[in-house]
Amino acid sequence: MRATVMYGAGDVRIENVPDATIIEPTDAVVRVTRACICGSDLWPYKTMEPSDNGRMMGHEAIGVVEAVGADVREIKHADLVVMPFAFSDGTCVFCHEGLQTSCVHGGFFGTVDVPGAQAEAVRVPQADGTLVVLPVGEDDALMPSLLTLSDVMGTGHHAAVTAKVGPGKIAAVVGDGAVGLCGVIAAKRLGAEQVILLGRHPDRIALAREFGATDVVSERGDEAIERVRELTDGYGVHAVLECVGLEQSELTAIQIARPGGAVGRVGVPQDETMPASQPAFYNNISVSGGPAPVRAYIEELLPDILEGSIEPGRVFDRVTGLDDVPDGYRAMNDREAIKVMVTP
Ligand SMILES: [Zn+2]
User: Fold this and answer.
1) What pLDDT score was predicted for residue 113?
2) What's the CA gap between 140 and 51, in Å, rounded?
3) Are strands 107-108 and 215-217 parallel, antiparallel or unpaired?
4) Ion ligand 1: residues, CB < 5 A
5) What are the tens digits of pLDDT across the range 223-254?
6) What is the whole-number distance in angstroms between the Cα of residue 253 and the centre of ligand 1?
7) I want to staple 102 with a disulfide (CB 3.0 to 4.6 A). Which of 39, 94, 249, 300 is the partner?
């Protein structure tokens, strides 16, 4: 089968690799009908050390089940399924707590150990715990929005949940990538009265406003903090969705939170240490977040997508076949595209 393999920074190739097959009796093999490139794929795209073996990329997919292992009970051949970016057994203590990204038998797709989904097919460990059957056909018009349940919509929602967004609250979203834009949808959906987007790209800002952003701050650093204070009677916001993961964005996130506020972090942190420990302490700011248990959120978000009340699939502004995936990485890295959908 053909798959996307990254060999080093800027070096993405489409290659013939061994077919995805059942290895464990709890596995399924899924023929990928839709996949996509993630903002988090751009970190290795910028920094990966050259590798002889490469890494099979991709952790977001919808597809049709082609085969299941002997111990798979719920997922059936020919089901159309959405695959969260992490696999999980659905039965351990953390899965029961709704934190499937900490599953004791879990892991992440598109890593060195588990091949990714920017491919013609993908092996899905723990199929019963991981996959969710979609009640639509494989070419349904809702496919882009359903695909965001793999990662970005669930991740934006996790940022909003961990930032304690609720009715009447003022939220701010740091970052205007696909996750930040989904964070705007999530903050509005959970009842935020004011949603301030911190972002700089005109096309993304326009989409954020359609998703429910009430204010936009395009300044950076101290000027951004000043602008947010002006928009909030000088107090700052209740809930900050940190959707970038750089030192500057984390610092800004803590500094725009009002005393007693909360920061929900979903941007993968690029540093070992967290900035602004003292302002967070003196202002009683909760700092939470982490890898989103998107599996836990699918049941909650799916009905809203099916009835059309949210349209996170609008973050996809480019569609490509497998052959052009390397150019998709380039386009996202150059900020030509917000998010690229792949039709293998
Ligand atoms: Zn588990």
Assistant:
1) 85
2) 39
3) unpaired
4) 88-89, 92, 95, 103
5) 999 999 999 999 999 999 999 999 999 999 99
6) 31
7) 94
